[in-house]
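Person: At home tonight, work slowly through the protein below, taking as long as you need, and write a paragraph about the fold.
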Amino acid sequence: MKETLDRSNLPKHIAIIMDGNGRWAKKKGAMRIFGHRNAIQAVRESIEGAAELGIEYLTLFSFSTENWSRPQEEVKALMELLVQTILAEVSQMMKNNIQLNAIGDLESLPSHAREKLLETIQKTSTNTGLTVTLALSYSGQWEITQAAKRIAQKVSEGKLKPEEITQETLASHLDTAGMPDPELMIRTSGEFRISNFLLWQLAYTEMVFTPVLWPDFRKDDLFAAIDDFQKRERRFGKTGEQVNS
């Protein structure tokens, strides 16, 4: 599948909603955390596949603000798994020139998890290959609200006039400022919604929904989604004739 892809028409930024861990575990007759633990290989393969193609940005929806309402045992286990995974993968990130990034309300993370996350972000900050962004304690509505507050603060301080606020102004105050918007968003597990993920950034993103549960997701699934992306005509409000002229 990888060899058939058009290398001149690859998305610079791919976003993935990693869904289906709980259902995968249930099918195995196991607890939900079993699904989360077995999803690490899917993360590895997605990162490796993106890096092999030369994709510049990969954003993974890892933990939403709504996920805090899950049973505390599961939340605690997820936070411990986050730390374990970061520690286990940092050497590979350095070896493969991968930069780690994170967006979301990081202050809400347990101190130990936040500390290890920020340490790894700092350690990989000079890497120049694929940038992997973890969306943690994140929601699109929260992000836009935070951006509005930052802009309002500048207006109240006289640093910005209301009439000077543009779409670019808001985009520059989002957590993803400096990153291109995703051209491709993939959601696993057969659900057809974006679940409060990158609400501003997905305005013109091509979306692929796959029935594959996240722990079963592999490089070929990533390549298949990119192949689907490459078969689409992206018009951005124009007609097909205008795009192809």
Observations:
- The radius of gyration is 19 Å.
- The longest helix spans residues 72-95.
